[in-house]
């Protein structure tokens, strides 16, 4: 399965029956509002539960720059999330220094390549916490 527009489309059409499980891990769909365009952008991302929240990593494969979806949620932290058939509004925030190490371990347990990505770049790769909006 492709990890991009086709992934998003199949995930949405099947409530995650196709697309939730990917390469021995799990993905959710994150929809952000473009910081310049105001358009909605949906991105499939590896995630893990962390208490009542969901964690995703803004790795961009270890690129020197943050992914666009991360830049968008920094500007507008009100996002939409889909986990399987569960669609909900959420508030996104970057994990703080005190909480990030534990969250990073949770994420590297499901996708060990995050450690490699961090070694490839000078920027600290953010862990993003998605908390369901009331």
Brief summary:
Helices cover 28% and strands 35% of the residues. With 134 residues, the protein is of the alpha+beta class.
Instruction: Please tell me the total number of domains.
Output: 1
Q: What's the story with the biggest beta sheet?
A: 8 strands, antiparallel
CATH topology: Pnp Oxidase, Chain A
Report the sheet-strand fraction: 35-45%
- Assign a percent range to the helix content: 25-40%
Level-2 CATH architecture: Roll
Low-confidence stretches: none
Task: Give a verbal description of the structure.
With 134 residues, the protein is of the alpha+beta class. It has a single domain (5-132), classed as Electron Transport, Fmn-binding Protein, Chain A (Pnp Oxidase, Chain A, Roll). Helices cover 28% and strands 35% of the residues. It has four helices and eight strands. Strands 1, 2, 3, 4, 5, 6, 7 and 8 form an eight-stranded antiparallel β-sheet that branches. A hairpin with a 2-residue loop joins β4 and β5. The longest helix is centred in the last third of the chain and has 11 residues, at 100-110. The radius of gyration is 14 Å and the shape is globular. The model has no long low-confidence stretch (mean pLDDT 95). It catalyses: oxidized coenzyme F420-(gamma-L-Glu)(n) + a quinol + H(+) = reduced coenzyme F420-(gamma-L-Glu)(n) + a quinone. GO terms for molecular function: coenzyme F420 binding; oxidoreductase activity. This is Nitroreductase family deazaflavin-dependent oxidoreductase.
């Amino acid at each position: 399965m492709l990890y991009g527009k086709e992934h998003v489309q199949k995930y949405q059409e099947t409530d995650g029956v196709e697309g939730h499980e990917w390469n021995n891990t799990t993905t959710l769909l994150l929809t952000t509002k473009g910081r310049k365009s105001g358009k909605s952008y949906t991105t499939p991302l590896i995630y893990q539960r962390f208490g009542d929240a969901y964690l995703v990593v803004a790795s961009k494969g270890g690129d020197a720059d943050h992914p666009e979806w991360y830049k968008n949620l920094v500007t507008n932290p009100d996002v939409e999330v889909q986990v399987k058939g569960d669609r909900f509004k959420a508030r996104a925030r970057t994990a703080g220094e005190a909480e990030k190490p534990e969250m990073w371990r949770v994420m590297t347990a499901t996708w060990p390549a995050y450690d490699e990505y961090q070694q490839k770049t000078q920027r600290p790769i953010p862990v993003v916490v998605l908390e369901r909006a009331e």
